[in-house]
Design a protein that fits this description.
Keywords: Signal, Transport. It comes from Paracoccus kondratievae. Belongs to the bacterial solute-binding protein 3 family. This is Amino acid ABC transporter substrate-binding protein. The chain has two domains: 219 residues, Periplasmic binding protein-like II (D-Maltodextrin-Binding Protein, domain 2); 96 residues, D-Maltodextrin-Binding Protein, domain 2 (3-Layer(aba) Sandwich). The N terminus is likely disordered. The chain is α/β, with parallel strands linked by helices. Strands 10-9-11-8-12 form a five-stranded mixed sheet. A three-stranded parallel sheet has the order 4-1-5. It is built from 13 helices and 14 strands.
């Protein structure tokens, strides 16, 4: 789930030379011509992005892929899901293999600048944590001095971990892994005392265990991890489409627009913001190369932000995540859509 430091990253010069940096408007044109959205997702993280036995993908991040496909192509099923690891995800995006990276990735300075990515917003505010077996008898990360810790290689998790242990005058032995699936396997096999990644990823991983009640997530959160979809530098219109699709989902929750009442509100709402959001006035879609009902389709694909959260990772799911910082700004959280006007 974590954030690749991406040592030896592809430079902007190399990307430009390879033609990977899309010209203005090219991505929208290519997606429409292809008839399919290529969406980069996790290789498998329950609740966020995972295929079932029949290869059907679902999850919090997958729902954004569906919303974007609905907005652009008019069909939430017109998606090719491209599984990516912490090591391969940014290469997949910069090379043009995917049109957007919906995989839970942290917005950092280096990725925004050196890797030439545009994060279009934050869809989940997270932080790095630790999971241990209950029988280890540990109740705080500060009791992990000398512990073996499973950690995904090539990620900023490594740097956060090193900083935390140094600041607390502790030592640890890393057990390097390449993916969350390997981390789960190694942790369950007893190869490490603790597993560290984003707290949401730990909750998702624990939910897949046969005995989740025997594993605890320690209280310490040791970093800021603003997760969100990313696109390549160089195509501002495509970035705008992705950004405002995310904002449409967030704004819909704020204004009470749901998958159940959206058609009725499109006809009857007297709220000017809702009218603009749903395309009954102002024709905002024309400004980004889409039709009037692009946002309406995006919301209908899986519901508003709150509906998506509740259905995939919320408190009534096995993942069991509370809204916390991801509540609407009107409810004490940080979710805040820019104005549709």
């Amino acid at each position: 789930m974590k954030k690749s430091v991406f040592f030896g990253s592809v430079t902007a010069v190399a990307l430009a030379a390879s033609g990977a940096l899309a010209a203005e408007g090219d991505t929208l044109k290519e997606v429409k011509a292809r008839g399919v959205l290529n969406c980069g997702v996790n290789t498998g993280l329950i609740g966020f992005a995972a295929p079932d036995a029949n290869g059907n993908w679902s999850g919090f991040d997958v729902s954004f892929c569906k919303a974007l496909a609905a907005a652009v192509l008019g069909d939430a099923t017109k998606i090719k899901y491209v599984p990516t690891t912490g090591q391969t995800r940014f290469t997949a995006l910069s090379s043009g293999e995917v049109d957007i990276l919906a995989r839970n990735s942290t917005w950092t300075f280096q990725r925004d600048t050196d890797l030439k990515l545009d994060f279009i917003g934050v869809n989940y505010y997270d932080g790095q944590g630790f999971m241990v077996r209950k029988d280890l008898g540990v109740s705080s990360a500060k009791e992990l001095n000398g512990a073996t810790i499973c950690i995904q290689t090539g990620t900023t998790t490594e740097l956060n971990l090193a900083d935390y242990f140094k600041a607390n005058n502790m030592e640890y032995q890393p057990v390097n892994i390449d993916s969350n699936a390997e981390g789960e396997q190694q942790y369950l096999a007893g190869a490490c005392d603790a597993y560290t990644t984003d707290a949401s990823g730990l909750a998702a991983t624990r939910a897949s265990f046969a005995d989740p009640e025997n594993h605890i997530i320690l209280p310490e959160i040791i970093s800021k991890e603003p997760l969100g979809p990313a696109v390549r530098h160089g195509d501002s219109n495509w970035a705008d489409i992705a950004r405002w699709t995310l904002y449409a989902l967030i704004a819909a929750e704020e204004y009470g627009v749901t998958s159940a009442n959206i058609d009725e509100l499109a006809k009857s709402s007297n709220n000017p913001e809702v009218q603009r959001l749903l395309g009954t006035t102002d024709e905002l879609g024309k400004m980004i190369g889409l039709d009037a009902e692009w946002a309406k389709r995006a919301i209908k694909a899986g519901g508003n932000y709150g509906e998506i959260f509740a259905a995939t990772i919320g408190e009534q799911t096995p993942i069991g995540l509370a809204r916390g910082l991801n509540a609407q700004w009107t409810q004490g959280g940080l979710m805040y859509a820019m104005p549709f006007r």
